[in-house]
Every structure is written in C-alpha cells, then in structure tokens.
Specification:
The protein has 729 residues and is of the alpha/beta class. It has 26 helices and 22 strands. 39% of the residues lie in helices and 16% in strands. It is a peripheral membrane protein.
C-alpha cells in the first residue's frame, strides 16, 4: 500500500502548480502518489497536471468538466486515493525540501489518526512568518500521541486541511468529508480532531503557505465570507449528534468560533464596510445560540473586550473601539514614515534640481487631456528600436495609421533608429510630455517609477523573452542574483500594466507567479518572432550577404545570457578551437548580452571566420543568418527555435547557476537540442555533427511544440487588434 496520497486541487493556480508538484515529487521519498484534481480551471492547470502525469507515473490527474469548488474537489481526490494517509496540499502551496522522510518516519512510528505538521506563511514579498506552533506548544510534544480532550490547546493551531496528514480509513469510518462553499476547512479539521483517538504533532516546518498578492479568497471582498457561519453551524450540529463524547470540548470549540468570526470581520480585505453590521449581527446571534451553558474561557485584554461586545450585540461600541485602534496605529506609522524619508528626500532634491523641475513639468502635463492618437514605445531601457515593441509599432502603423507612434531613446542611441521613426530623447521636456499624455504606452521592460497610470491610458508590457531564470518576485529567494532590487517598487510598476503579452502557456504561468497583479494576459505569441516565422530564403540570403557571409558557409551564432550575480563573467569558450572544428567553411558569430552595450567595439564584416556582432542592433538578422545557435540560459533559444534549426545548450556552470540565480525548469532534462556541460564536449558535438542527430532533433520538436506553437507570424497583429482596436481574440 502507498503510504501517502497527496490530493492537490487546482483552480487558477497555473503560475504556482509546477512548484507545488515539484516540491512533492522531488522529495527523497518515493512511497507516494499525487492525485491532481483540475476543478475545471479556466487556465492551464489541467494541462500541467496532464504533462506531469505523462512523465511521472506517481501523478494521477482528474480533469473535471464543471467547477465544483475546493471542498468537493478534495472529496473527489480522496475517493480516488489509495494511500494509508492523505495529505491535502493546495496547488499554490509547496512542501519544504527534505521534509517528507521525517513525516513518513513519524507516521510509521506512531500510526496517528491525524498528524499535524508545522508551516510558515510565505508572503509574496518573500517575508516568512511563523505559525502558532511555538505558542501553542512551548514545550514540543514529542512523539507521543494524544486525544483532543487531553490537549485542547491543539485547536489553537491553524484549522486548515494542508497542515495535517490524516489516516484515510479513519476519514472513511467517521464519514468525514469537505462541505461545499468557502471556509470548508472549518467543518472538516475540527471534527477530525474531535474524533481522533491518536493525534500527533511534528514540530518541523513542512509546508510553505503562500500568501498571494492577488487571487486569494482571503484577499477577496464580498458576501461569500458569510459562508463561514454555515461551516461553523455544521461543526455544532455534528457535536450535537456525537453528544457526551465531545461535550467537554464545547467551550474550547466555541471560543475558536468567536475568534474566527472576529478574524474574518477584522480583515478589511474581506468584509466591505456596508456588510460589516450584518456580519456582526450574525456573530451575536451565533454567540447566543451556541454559547455553552457553563460559559467558556474568555480571552484576556482587548480580545476579551471584543468577545463581550459580541455577546451583548454592541456594534457601535465595537466599531468605535476598532476605529480608535486603527487611528493610533496610523499615527505611529506616519511618524515612522516621516523619520525614514525626510533626510533622503532632501538630499535627492539637492542633487537633482534639474530633474525635479522636469518632474514638476511632468506633473503639470498630467492635468492636460490624454492625446487620443499618441502611442509611446520603448525597449530595453531606452536602448533603441527593438524587440516586441518594434514589431507592435510596425503593425500599428499598418493597421491603425491614425495612431502616432513615438519612441523613447537614449541620446547616444538616436543614430540607431530606422529612418522615419519619430522619437523623443529620454530626460528632455518632450519625453516627460509624451509620458504624461500618451494614450498607449508599450514597453518590453517597465517605465520609470515616477510614471503614473492615468485613467484612460493603456499600458502594454510585452516582456522580452520566455523565462528560463526566475524573474520578478521569485528572485526574492535568490538574493545573490537580485542585489539592489526593490520589490515593492517593482510591484507598483507591475500594477500599471493593463496587458501582459506572452509567447506561450509556460510564460503565462510564470509571469502570473512572478508578477501578480490585475492585468489581462494576451497569450498570442511574441511579435518580434513574426519576422522569423515569415522569413523567406531570399531574405535569409540578403541578411547573410549584408554580414559578409557566403551562401555555402556554415554559421554558428554564440549568444550567452547575462549573469547579474557574476559581473564581468566570461564563459570558458575558445573561439579559435571551435573554428578549427568547424573547418574552413565555418563562420562564428559572437554576441554579448545587451547589458554590455556601452562596452561594445563595433566591427564591420570580417575577412576572417570570427565576427563580433555585439553591436548589431537587430538580433533577428543574426538568427536568420545562423545555421546553428549555441547559447546557455538565454531566451534566445525560444526565439531561434521558431526557425526549426539546430540549437546547442552550452551550460558549463549549470549547477551553480541554478543555485545562485534560480530557474523555472530543468533545461538539461528538457533541452531544445544537444547539450554540452564543458568545452571539450561542445567541440565533440560539432566534430561528430551530433548537433543534428536524431536525438537532438527529437528534443527540438518537443521544445517547439511546447514553446513555439503560437509563433505563426501574426502575433503583432493580434496585439494591435486587441489593444488599439479593442477586438476580442
């Protein structure tokens, strides 16, 4: 028999589900199964479950055709479980590495009905907060099991399904199921504790409880929070049915109910002001209805005052008390904020007087009407005309000619603009005026922090690659590669987005996780790849001729990524030795990352076999010219794969890169072609022509199917029709 069945319900968690599944399947413990229940999720959660099942027999997907809700979805998974124990893990949470052997050891040693494990709240800003475990059990309870009546303080631990592993036969015998509706954990977790003969506590953090910035029920306002009352009513009906067996637990359970009601009411993200009086009235009614005849332990201090106000139904006094507490805390925050900001602001104003004057000009321009015909474009921190914004700009000129497109560029990059492209230079009055008044703002990175999102304006984030390395909020876990990043400011920039353009389902999932906000995703392919998808042989030959490359030469393009955590890093790569292997008909193009563009030394077409193309402004030209791409962890591989030509992953520091920078998937396990982890192997791949082997081509086919299916040459048109013409897909 399998020891542990993991039941993982999935609904709108595509950005987090992979991390959840990996955290289970990568544990140093195999006696498990994962039952993933796709609750008719409108995103790609079901496809992810199917993908994992195809490569790991321990994963069993259940794809529902109608949404049933979290509780019933868990029940469906429970009905299919075969394990001795069941662990309900939500699709946006994840296990702590290496925790499962400890859980298994405790289960096998003590055979509890319920084993409670510790957790941390993993907030979106990478702050972790501990659970109440140390407060509830100042002395760790050890391996001994107990009944709830012997340790009623156990009920003060969070009443969720995911922080406990439950014996499956115990659930079946007791008929314990999840009820439909919100707060479904309440009517499951407390009855399970009351019915259990053997409760165990593992004082080890085993699960990360993700506190999402957007999309979580606990951060959603509405009247569905009133469903908490029905869940607690189920608990008390069950206690009435069980009678004397649980009578002595009633005071402690009642105290937990009032505590929970106060928690829900006190969270401003849940109960809107107009609903608060009705919610409080129901609290008072339940207090009168379920209060034990002999009373219950009322908490001390302010919490006790709240309980007494609920008991007497004094809503106005309750509101006044809450308002006084909030006012005091706001005053304290204001003092701290002033102390923190006054001195730095004064210094910045002194240093940047001209910039301050221009910002004032920008703010004044914000009061003027939006220009309904102006679209502002930018790419790579104003480095010039490039990438997805350039493709969208070209399509917009064709499809919406009444819209005036203007580019923002650095002064030193003005000369790189194509003829006829209107522009403003960054930092000039014209730049601030365009930022303030543009109806559309299109960028593949973020506009500066000072930019305000005006009502009626439309911000389009096109991104500039399919992610291999972790991005956005996920970088908080890899501080070496995120030095200097201000994640609070990042999120304020992300909150300006109206649209996020993605190239494939995988990117959609990762951006949703890395940049949680309320934008609309346009999963349409990458506009910059339209040119690659539609390129003709004549265009390829023209590009090669412009680069001085003959029609019979074999061209290898080497394009590594930037390593933020290793400034000045250079890969172990000897161009001369590679050229020796390529032979007299070989040509090697080498391109540095765009972060190094100020250090470039432009060269024209070379007479020799080695050509430095770092200064070439259009990377798409280089893709078209190359017969083979050699890269490491760069998004270049996803773009080049559109051409269906050989790709080689040269990853000499893969292990170190994964640890320091973090990655979203195992590139060496799912590569786009042949792989070399050292330079001699790279030379052998070309010497034996293994770059074109059947195995390499099979990898490329699978890679293209996963990442390039939408790149059909019309992505830019799809963006323009949705963003500028408001046409649906």
């Amino acid at each position: 028999m399998t020891l542990i069945s993991f039941v993982v319900p999935a609904f709108k968690v595509q950005g987090y589900l992979r991390e959840c599944l990996d955290s289970i399947l990568d544990q140093p413990f195999d006696d498990l199964e994962v039952i993933g229940v796709d609750d008719a999720s409108p995103d790609d959660s079901g496809a992810i479950l199917t993908e994992y099942a195809a490569r790991d027999p321990r994963v069993r997907p259940v794809l529902l055709t109608e949404n049933v809700g979290l509780g019933p979805a868990r029940n469906i998974g429970l009905d299919r479980a075969v394990g001795e124990y069941v662990w309900f893990v939500d699709g946006d949470d994840w296990l702590v590495p290496g925790c499962l052997p400890h859980v298994a050891d405790r289960l096998l040693a003590t055979r509890p009905d319920v084993l409670i494990v510790d957790h941390v709240r993993a907030h979106w800003n990478n702050v972790g907060t501990r659970s109440a475990m140390a407060d509830v059990f100042p002395e760790p309870p050890g391996e001994a099991t107990f009944r709830l009546r012997d340790r009623p303080e156990t009920m003060r631990l969070l009443h969720t399904a995911w922080n406990r592993v439950v014996r499956r036969r115990f659930l079946v015998e007791q008929g314990l199921r999840f009820a439909p509706g919100w707060y479904e954990d309440v009517s499951f977790s407390y009855p399970a504790l009351m019915a259990a003969e053997r409760i165990g506590v593992l004082d080890r953090v085993c699960l990360n409880y993700r506190q999402r910035r957007t999309g979580a029920i606990t951060r959603t306002r509405g009247d569905r929070h009133f469903e908490v009352f029905a869940q607690w009513h189920r608990v008390f009906r069950l206690m009435d049915r069980w009678g004397p067996a649980v009578a002595e637990l009633r005071p402690a359970v009642f105290e937990r109910m009032i505590w929970h009601y106060l928690t829900v009411l006190g969270n401003g993200d849940r109960i809107a002001p107009e609903l608060r009086p009705a919610f409080f009235a129901q609290m008072h009614a339940d207090h009168s209805r379920f209060r034990p005849p002999g009373g219950y332990p009322v908490p001390p201090g302010v919490e006790g005052v709240k309980h007494r106000l609920v008991a007497t139904g004094r809503w106005r006094t309750f509101t006044a008390l809450r308002g006084a507490n909030q006012t005091g805390e706001a005053a304290r925050r204001s003092v701290r904020r002033i102390r923190r900001r006054v001195l730095p602001v004064a210094r910045r104003v002194a240093r940047r007087s001209r910039e301050a004057a221009l910002r004032e000009y920008y703010r004044a321009e914000l009061h003027r009407p939006l220009d309904p015909t102006l679209a502002l474009y930018a790419a790579y921190w104003y480095r010039g005309y490039a990438c997805n914004p350039a493709a969208v700009y070209a399509a917009a000129r064709r499809l919406v000619p009444h819209v005036r497109g203007v580019w923002v560029v650095r002064r030193d990059r003005v000369g790189t603009l194509p003829p006829g492209v209107e522009y403003v230079v960054a930092g000039t009055p014209a730049y601030y005026r365009a930022l303030a008044r543009a109806r559309w703002l299109v960028n593949n990175v973020n506009f500066p922090d000072f930019v305000r999102k005006r009502p009626g304006s439309v911000h389009v984030q096109t991104h500039h690659g399919t992610p291999v390395k972790v991005m956005g909020l996920d970088q908080q876990r890899y501080p070496v590669g995120a030095m200097g990043m201000d994640f609070a400011k990042l999120l304020r920039r992300v909150d300006r987005w109206d649209y996020s353009v993605t190239s494939n389902s995988f990117s959609t999932q990762m951006w949703e996780r890395a940049y949680p906000a309320e934008y609309t995703t346009l999963e349409v392919g990458y506009p910059r790849n339209d040119r690659l998808a539609l390129a003709t042989p004549d265009e390829v030959q023209k590009v090669r001729a412009e680069l001085g490359i003959g029609p019979d030469e074999r061209v290898v393009l080497y394009a590594p990524t930037h390593r933020e955590h290793l400034p000045g890093w250079r890969p172990p790569f000897d161009p001369e030795r590679l050229l020796d292997v390529l032979g007299p008909a070989g040509r090697l193009l080498m391109r540095s990352h765009y972060f190094h563009d100020r250090d470039r030394r432009p060269r024209g077409p070379a007479a020799g076999q080695l050509l430095d193309v770092s200064a070439h402004d259009r990377v798409e030209d280089l893709y078209l010219a190359a017969d083979v791409l050699v890269t490491d962890y760069s998004s270049a591989m996803f773009d080049y794969a559109v051409l269906d030509r050989p790709i080689v992953v040269y990853a000499p520091d893969w292990a170190a890169y994964r640890v320091a920078r973090g990655v979203y998937f195992d590139l060496l396990a799912e590569p786009p072609g042949a792989v070399a982890e050292d330079f001699p192997t790279l030379l052998d791949l070309f010497r034996t022509d293994a770059v074109r082997s059947a195995a390499a081509e099979q990898c490329r086919r699978q890679f293209r199917a996963r990442f390039c299916a939408l790149d059909d040459g019309h992505a830019a048109e799809r963006v323009v029709r949705r963003v500028f013409l408001d046409e649906s897909a």
